Amino acid sequence: MEKSETSAASQTLKKPRADLNSLPTRQYLDQTVAPILLQGLHTLARERPADPISFLAAYLLKNKGRCDEASEN
């Protein structure tokens, strides 16, 4: 892919915060929360910890950076 194509593609994927506020609820959750939550649930199901709620909370906090990066793109 050429640099101009990559640049154009990345610009169309980026959503400013103002745009996130105007999205319908389902789209907002799909773009911001669902990806990291599904990864956390997958890890939770695989590891089956004794305290699943605390495990998931810790996972989300630990991997919050991924969620922030995804919502900025």
How do the helices and strands line up, and which of them pair or pack?
Layout: H1 3-13, H2 17-22, H3 25-32, H4 34-47, H5 52-62, H6 64-72
Helix pairs in contact: 4-5
Summarize the structure.
Helix content is about 80%, strand content about 0%.
Describe the structure.
The chain has 73 residues and is mostly helical. The protein has helices at 3-13, 17-22, 25-32, 34-47, 52-62, 64-72. It has a domain at 23-63: cAMP-dependent Protein Kinase, Chain A (Up-down Bundle). The protein contains six helices and no strands. The radius of gyration is 15 Å and the shape is elongated. The two termini are 18 Å apart. Mean pLDDT is 81; it is low at 5-12. This is Protein dpy-30 homolog. Belongs to the dpy-30 family. InterPro entries: Dpy-30_motif, DPY30_SDC1_DD, Sdc1/DPY30.
Key attributes of the depicted protein:
single chain; 73 residues; cAMP-dependent Protein Kinase, Chain A; Sdc1/DPY30; DPY30_SDC1_DD; nucleus; chromatin regulator
